[in-house]
Amino acid sequence: MITLYVPRDSASRSVGADEVAERLAALLPDARIVRNGSRGMLWLEPLVEIDTPDGRVAYGPVLEADLDSLAAALLADGEHPLRLGLTGELPWLASQERLTFARVGVIDPLDPDDYLAHGGVAGLRRALTMDRTSIVDEVADSGLRGRGGAGFPAGIKWRTVEATASAQKYVCVNADEGDSGTFADRMLMEGDPFTLLEGMAIA
């Protein structure tokens, strides 16, 4: 059985990813189709990937009109005009060391087992062995900053909350940081939402 990946995030869906996934499912009924997040190369969406012994191979941008010939190619030798090569070797991705987006585009963002299989909850498990002050110290020492324009140090925020005398404290997630129209956190929230929940649990 072949495994195909077609993004389900809003940017990819806006250019036809849902239709591509549905048509591929009809053309290749024995294929496993995983709806992953976007790799971030929006100019190549919808990007279709296929698992191979050498790694995932990318094709894109894939339009509905391309699907008959693409499906035939995927069942044969994989050669097609839209073939881009191994996803991890594409120049835009190959030059990156992904930390925040390490799982985005790799996993099915709605599958907790996929999240666990790719290192999910390792941070939470470790945090559960530490006291609060040690967790805050580690966040402060890491230099972790917010993803908004100010890049405010997370350690300062966490230390302020830790020092606040209150029997009850709340975790609030600001998903847009007030940067109008940037939707800076959309890709993470759509492509790896469990990492956000894990971070909230640690906080």
Keywords:
203 residues; alpha+beta; Glutaredoxin; 2 domains; elongated
Main β-sheet: number of strands, strand sense, barrel status? 5 strands, mixed
Instruction: State the order of secondary-structure elements, H for helix, E for strand.
Output: EHHEEEHEHHHHHHH
Identify the CATH class of the largest domain: Alpha Beta
Give, in spatial order, the strands making up the sheet with the most strands.
Answer: 2-1-3-4-5
Estimate nothing, just give the exact number of structural domains.
2
Low-confidence stretches: none
Helix content: 25-40%
Q: Name the shape in a single word.
A: elongated
CATH topology of the largest domain: Glutaredoxin
What's the overall average pLDDT, rounded? 93
Examine the secondary-structure arrangement and name the CATH architecture of the largest domain: 3-Layer(aba) Sandwich
Secondary structure category: alpha+beta
Number of strands: 5
Rg for CA atoms: 20 Å
Tell me what portion of residues adopts beta-strand conformation: 5-15%
User: How far is it from the N-terminal to the C-terminal residue, by CA?
Assistant: 41 Å
Note the total helix count: 10
Fourth CATH level, the homologous superfamily of the largest domain: Glutaredoxin
